[in-house]
Amino acid sequence: MGLVVGPRLSAAGGVVISGIDLAEHLVPEARARIIEAFRDHHFVVFPGQALTRERQYQYARNFGEIEPHGGGGSPDKRYAVAHVISNLDKDGNPVDRSSSPVSNYRWHTDKSYHPVPPLLTMLHAVELPPSGGDTEFANTLMGYAALPEETKRRIAGLRVVFCWGASGGKSIMAMREDPPIDHPLVRTHPDTGNKALYLGNHAWHIRGMPESEGAALLEELLEHATQRQFVYAHRWRKGDLVMWDNRCLLHRAVANYDMGKYRRVMHRSVVRGTVPF
């Protein structure tokens, strides 16, 4: 069986692609169909994949430059290939970190605090709890389109100041050396020209606006953009690989399982993007 693109998963996007083994060399025709599905549906699910971290890295390279995870480009293997996202402590025991203000259980888009944020992220499900452990995606193209025209005029041209740990306050932000960076609140998708809201857990305030006023506006827009009609919840199965568009989606892990009891282990790859405009 060849590559098969299924029907759209939800109003918010998503499509399943089957009939392909991502551990094998990706031929140009398959790559073109994946890119088309990714552009049109914003996130793509590949079920039943058996990938080493090295094989996942090789697959991700088909879509651009791979970003290291921290470490400043450390030569250590952890930073050279798909890295581990889990609920495990240093001894391999499951722990509940969902209450942390910088956890993945809050709506965010990956590395929005970088001058050049990522194009896409992919996660491969390696170990899962018996149930739960979902990931939700919110389509910020839909969120922007549904705003009143008056609000669209109000926010046109505004720029968001992003900083890692912004939701945790200045004491958390001070833990990082990265300076704050600003990006458009309404960014234009470079592949389609459509406009999307760009905000989330690392958004601090609006440049040129009183800090409290800007934070309140961001909270209002985040609540709007994550309404259920804009959201898809992915219920993971072992072997799923999901790749999504950071330029028009927010995402968060869902704390709907006993995190102190069950292991949840994912391998993540991030592909570098372009400066938002």
Description:
By secondary structure, this protein is an alpha+beta fold. It contains seven helices and 15 strands. The protein has a seven-stranded mixed β-sheet with strand order 1-2-3-13-5-15-4. A three-stranded antiparallel β-sheet has the order 12-6-14. A three-stranded antiparallel β-sheet has the order 8-7-11. A hairpin with a 6-residue loop joins strand 9 and strand 10. The N and C termini lie far apart (41 Å).
What is the string of SSEs from the N terminus onward?
EEHEHHEEEHHEHEEEEHEEEE
Instruction: Find the count of extended strands (DSSP E, 2+ residues).
Output: 15
How far is it from the N-terminal to the C-terminal residue, by CA?
41 Å
The major β-sheet equals: 7 strands, mixed
Strand order of the largest sheet: 1-2-3-13-5-15-4
Relative strand content: 25-35%
Tell me, rounded to a whole number, the average pLDDT. Answer: 92
Task: Provide the structure class.
Answer: alpha+beta
Shape: globular
